[in-house]
Amino acid sequence: MPEGRAEPTVPAPHVPRKSSRFSVYIRVKPLGAGGGGGEREREGQTHRLTYDSEGVCIKESRARASNPEHVEGEEGVSEGPPWRKGKAAKAAKGAKGGKALHTFTYARKVVPPSSDQADAYTLMGVPDMIDAVLDGYNVNIMANGQTGSGKTHSIFGPPTVDWTSPACAPDYGLLPRAAMAICQRLNEMQATTGDTYVLTGAMLETVWSQLGVKDLFAPEEEAFINAQHEVVGAVQVPLRTPSAILSFVSRVEDRATRATGMNDTSSRSHCVVQLRIWRHLKASGKVRHSTFNFLDLAGAERLSEAHQAYANALDRPPKERQALMEGMLNNYTLNILQQVVEQIHDNMRRGVKDVGSGVRFRQVSLTRILNGSLDPKNAAMTAMIVPVSQAPHNWKPTRDALVFGESMAKLRMKPKRQRTVPYGAFMKDIKRRHAESAAALRRIDCAPISRAGKGHDNKTYKYRKIRLAESKTLRQLVDMMEECL
Predict the structure, then answer these.
(1) Per the annotation, where are the binding residues for ATP?
(2) Which residues are annotated as a binding site?
(3) Which superfamily, per CATH, for 112-390+404-409?
C-alpha cells in the first residue's frame, strides 16, 4: 500500500446475490489518537499489529525484526508482503523463539489510519447501502470492537464535534452522512417523480438497569420490543432537513458514558439508531417501507484494566460497583450476540432447512432487535465495522474482535426485498393494529383485580405497558402518514 492517504475505491455493487456474505470492514485506529488508557504505550510489549489493503496481522515484534521484507510505513506499521489468499484466518510460526501470529484476510476492505471520515464513508460502501435501502431492502451497519477503538467515532463522529458548526462537517461519521444523503435523495425523487415520503429517526440504548430499551428522546418513558421484534413506544422524529438531522444526531450526547481505565468516554450501553423510510410511489399508488439500522455496540472490556482490581467489588462505592456491573453485562450481551452468530453459522454448515431454528434470539434486548435482520426468513443487508487498536498491549482484545468479525463474514444470507403494499391497504392495516392494541388495553383495564387486592400481576402489567407503547407508536404513525403521504 503506498504511503499517504489511501485512494477510496468503491466496492462491488450492492445487488444482492443468491448467497450473499456479510460485509466486514476493518478500520485501523491511528496510534496515539486518544480515547483513554487503551492507546497509551507501555514497556515490555512484544506484539505488533500490521496491515495492508488485504488483511490484518498480529505478530511478535521479534518476528518483525527478522523479516527481511519488513517495510516501515506510516506510524511505524509494517506493510509487509501480500497475504496468501484462500484462508480467512490462520496461525503461522514466527521467527525462531517467537510466538504464533494471527492473520485475518476476510475483510472486504481494510480502512487505514490515513483515511478520514469521508474516505471511510466511501470505502465501506455506504453509498451502495443507501441505494439498497431506497430500493426496499433493510440495511444494518454494526460497529463492534474493544472499548476505545473508534466505534462511536466511526458511527457518529468524535466526542468534540459541534453539531451546530458547519466547520465540523468533515468530522461527521457514517450516520449523519448517510441520513443527509437519504434525505437529499428523497427530496430529489419527490421533485422529479412526485413520490412523497416519510423519513423518521429513533435513537435507543439498551441499559442494564431497565427491562426494555431507553428512548433518548423520552428518557422518562420506556420503549419495548414486541412479539414481532419491532421497537414500540419510541419517539419517531421526522427528518426532512439537514438541520433536523443534525439536531437528531446530537442527542447521542445524552447517551450513558463513563470514564474507565481504558477509555475516557466509554459507552455504557448499546446504542441503536433506526432510520425508517416510507415512500408513496405515485406511479403505482403503493407504499414501500424499509429500515436502516446503525448499531454502536458497547466496547468489550478487560475488567482488570478498565476498573483496576475488581476482586473486592462489594467494598466499593455504589458508582464504582455500577460501572463494574455495566462492563460485565456489556461483555455478557456481546457474548450472547457471538453465540447467536455461531449458532446460525452452525445451522448453515449442517444444512438445516430452517437456519433460525434453535437460535436464542430472545435472551437479551440486543439480539431481539437484530432478530429481524439476522433471521434468514427476513434477512437484511448487514455490514460490520471492526475498529482495531495498534497499541501493542491491546493485541488480545484486538484478536478477539477480529475473530468475531470472521464469524460474521462466514454468514451467507440472501437479503429480502420488502414488498410494496397499496396505500389504502397499508393505512387500513395500521389502523386495524391500532384498534387491536386499544381493545387489548380495554380488556386488561376491565379485568378483575386479584383476590389479594394487589392489582394485576407483573406479567399482565408488563403486557399492558407493551400494548400501550404499541398504541402510541401506531397512532403517531397514522398521523404522519395522513399528513405526508
Answers:
(1) 145-152
(2) 145-152
(3) Kinesin motor domain (3.40.850.10)
